[in-house]
Amino acid sequence: MERDFTARGHHDMGGLDGGEIDRAEHDYALWEKRVDALMMLCTNRLKLMTVDQLRKGIEALPPEAYDEMTYYERWISSVTNTLLERGVFTADELGAKMEEVRARYPDGVMPGGAAGGGC
Amino acid sequence: MPRFAVGDRVRVHKQFPPTPPSHIRTPYYIRGLSGTVERICGAFKNPEELAFGRPGTPEVPLYRVRFRQKDVWPDYDGNEADKIEIEIFEFWLDAAGDGA
Amino acid sequence: MSGNHHDRHHHGHDHDHLHPYDPEHHHPHRPDQDDTMTYYRLMEEAVRELMIEKGLVTPDDIRAEVEAMDARVPANGAKVVARAWTDPDFKKRLIETPKEAIAEAGHDIGPMKLVVLENTPEVHNVVVCTLCSCYPRWILGIPPDWYKSRSYRSRVVREPRAVLKEFGTEIAGDREVRVHDSTADMRYFVLPMRPAGTDGMSEEDLAALVHRDAMIGVTEVSGAR
């Protein structure tokens, strides 16, 4: 059988050897549920984006980022990029708001996610 | 109108779309293989267009295609009868015409 | 994947009332998720506030969506299964017109296009989404972590019997295993087989036997407890 196409997306993993399945589960945190809620509102009600745009944004992540980020980190990253592309808010607005939020957490912000599970 | 009927033999296109970035819903592992139409799911907006914020119309027929696991994985060691079923949009399919 | 559980001891030390602080024996403390601010949590908070300031959503909209998702739990699916086990006409409707049948059972599956896969003595069905994590969330809620993992997504299409075995599920060699990869607009719900020894059980008691993993197809429902 010659399946000789040369490229497959990093997300397109059917048939690879993924190792043993870790069946540990975590309860979803409120912020994760809010990401889910925001996505539902943006697609179903506001029609600001489609689930395929969400997927495209996730698939465009570099492989290392795709593997390291948690599930809802990938979602919020993709949702935010799509809303920026659509001009729902500007990069300057987002930057200013992120600084404002950051200032609420004087103990600092960790670079990645600790509230996690489920890449 | 859907081009294929339930029971038709179809072959999945083998190519990788030429100009990334793209967004496709036909997994790598099934491309180039032949299976049988299990059901017609209806017509849906084209995800390859929707992914870029375009309207995705006209809608495209979507099929569920059934493959023999032995045809998908040459070293498959389960039951001969084991199957895998996948949704595939019509523009990814050709008539197999191979009786395979 | 959640790397950094350690090195976060900056918060208040109420727990020290119980354990006087001793750096030699300081147990690694996994912080509550609420006290760990991360870059992407910060992004979520910022985007949510921008959307609210622009009048696109209200805090109430977000809350209502979260609550709606919290209400989508596997027990809803379990009730549907138990009803299908006890009412053959309902089972027929569930397979032919899932949205309407599930509405009869009191659940709205929204825009979801559902395919109900009936397990039989001849066929066992199992569901995956190799490309992302499509899941019948309108009836079962948010998928478990393992369903979204690289290991499950990559392997179950190629070696379903081995994967099922990891879940403690041994499928007889002469029974067909059918894997369903959710690649587009349909979502899949497995209707497990009713276990032996459950004759005469009430619908409610039967529903209590049905768990999420059996409706994904990685396990089967075992008999009366």
TrEMBL record, chain A:
- Domain named Nitrile hydratase beta subunit-like N-terminal is located at 9-104
Pfam families named among the record's database cross-references: NHase_beta_N
Q: Which SUPFAM superfamilies match?
A: Electron transport accessory proteins (SSF50090)
The membrane spanning regions, by residue number, are none
| InterPro entries in the record | CN_hydtase_beta-like_N, CN_hydtase_beta_C, Elect_transpt_acc-like_dom_sf
What name does the UniProt record give this protein?
Nitrile hydratase subunit beta
> Which organism does this record belong to?
Nisaea acidiphila
From TrEMBL, chain B:
User: One Pfam match, by short name?
Assistant: NHase_beta_C
Indicate the secretion signal residues.
none
Q: Which SUPFAM superfamilies match?
A: Electron transport accessory proteins
Using the record's annotation, list all stretches that form the Nitrile hydratase beta subunit domain. 2-94
Q: Could you tell me what this protein is called?
A: Nitrile hydratase subunit beta
TrEMBL record, chain C:
Enzyme Commission no? 4.2.1.84
User: Do you know which Pfam families this protein is assigned to?
Assistant: NHase_alpha
- First and last residue of the signal peptide: none
**What enzyme class is recorded for this protein?**
lyase
What UniProt keywords are attached to this protein's entry? Iron, Lyase, Metal-binding
Q: Where is the composition biased (Basic residues)?
A: 1-12
Residue ranges of the region described as Disordered: 1-34
Q: List where Basic and acidic residues composition bias occurs.
A: 13-33
Q: List each copy of the Nitrile hydratase alpha/Thiocyanate hydrolase gamma domain by range.
A: 41-219
Q: Which GO terms describe its molecular function?
A: nitrile hydratase activity; transition metal ion binding
Instruction: Spell out the SUPFAM superfamilies in the cross-references.
Output: Nitrile hydratase alpha chain (SSF56209)
Q: Which reaction does it catalyse?
A: an aliphatic primary amide = an aliphatic nitrile + H2O
Q: Where does Fe(3+) bind?
A: C129, C132, S133, C134
Q: Which family does it belong to?
A: Belongs to the nitrile hydratase subunit alpha family.
Q: What is this protein called?
A: nitrile hydratase
Q: Which organism is it from?
A: Nisaea acidiphila
